[in-house]
Structures are given as structure tokens and as C-alpha cells.
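User: For my dataset I need records formatted as: sequence, then C-alpha cells, nothing else. Please produce one.
Assistant:
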Amino acid sequence: MSVDLSGARWFKSTHSQPSADCVEIAHLSAESVGVRDSKDPTGPALVFSGEQWDRFLDSGIWRD
């Protein structure tokens, strides 16, 4: 699947430290979320369905 990310509005988590490298998230549509490495903003990004993203958030893994 190819997704056009040129208009995506990326943001870092509020849990990120100001000088720390982390992931950035973009809400691409009501049905998809993009995730990329903040150190490589022009590099590849992962795209998850809204359902997949919700399961990830509900898992609590991201807090560790």
C-alpha cells in the first residue's frame, strides 16, 4: 500500500524529552496513522489502520 505523506502534520509525543530522539505521529485520516523516526523525517514511515493504532495504545507497551 502506498500512502501520500506529503501533507501529513507530524508531531512528537508529549512524553518526549525536548532534546531526545523519538517517533513522530501523524493522523493521516479517520482510518490511518503514520509513524516515523524523528531523526530521519524524510525516511520511511509506517502506516497503521485506526484499529491497529488503538490496539497499540490500549496495550500500554508505549509507556515502557
